[in-house]
């Protein structure tokens, strides 16, 4: 029986896509082989790769002046690749710290840059809001400005795209990419691990403006040199072909759903319904400031924390899985990415209301 999987990542994938993968798994395109068994340099797979990039460009309306790369190493690999490609060793780089993943990114950057300037830090607020942009302390000479639009663990999301002027804006969109329309032209570089809204883990999509290519330090590994990977079609080495193939299927699924405008409206409806259930209850609580709440990751706590285990056990019995909060914060977390149908959120709300009725 299929469950409603609220995992933060690797996350649920569209059932329609999984069924197609299952049907094609041992005999892809009537070739007598799985797509996992063919050469990445074959005409058949190159066609898959090119079509996936084309569909992603259509979905996000990516300008022609940007390169799209399909890389290994996940988003965490990009924590190192970004400073190595965009900043000299003696450079200053600006980072906004709004939670676990932005903190990891800036910590990694300190290994490669002389000065990592934290322009704003939400730690004092318990990472429950986005610092007011008017109070940010920008360095003035930064090689780039990095931020995390959606913090998966804390459920904090930027309500707007920050201003960056002439400084390239770099964003980790791992947990919110493709959840709604996005103006790519506002950014110097966008990167996103695949395992939330794109496909299986093992793949990271990088969208980088062409004028930022060719600045990599000589110590940069060739598989993370953006110019080299762009020149080689992301195939300087054997890429994660199965993840790439599945990402392409997800892109087509998104287009069949009506594109990112339709997906964004659906995601907003799901999130608003869940937040309304939490806010309207005396039993559940979400700690994030309302104007900074994520529509992808919804953390919440119970009025009686001693009931956490009972809640999770009963939820699993009801077919609602992976609702545990991250180990660093506890409580619960419902990740409601693109593949989570509205029916899943409705089932969770109904379960929460019944659990409160029994235990409140």
Structure description:
It is a single chain. Helices cover 34% and strands 16% of the residues. Strand 3, helix 4 (100-109) and strand 4 (115-121) form a beta-alpha-beta unit. It is of the alpha/beta class and 360 residues long. The strands form 4 sheets. A 7-stranded mixed sheet has the order 2-10-9-8-5-3-4. A 3-stranded antiparallel sheet has the order 11-12-14, with helices on one face.
Radius of gyration over alpha carbons?
21 Å
Strand order, largest beta sheet? 2-10-9-8-5-3-4
- For the secondary structure, the number of strands is 14
Question: Helical content, roughly?
Answer: 25-40%
Shape: globular
Mean pLDDT: 97
Number of domain modules: 2
Query: Major sheet: size, sense and barrel closure?
Result: 7 strands, mixed
CATH homologous superfamily designation of the largest domain: Type I PLP-dependent aspartate aminotransferase-like (Major domain)
The structural class is alpha/beta
Order of helices and strands: EHHEHEHEEEEEEEHHHEEHEEH
Specify the CATH architecture of the largest domain: 3-Layer(aba) Sandwich
Low-confidence stretches: none
**Continuous helix count:** 9
Distance between the termini: 30 Å
Give the DSSP E fraction (strand runs of 2 or more residues): 15-25%
Question: Which fold name corresponds to the CATH topology of the largest domain?
Answer: Aspartate Aminotransferase, domain 2
CATH class of the largest domain: Alpha Beta
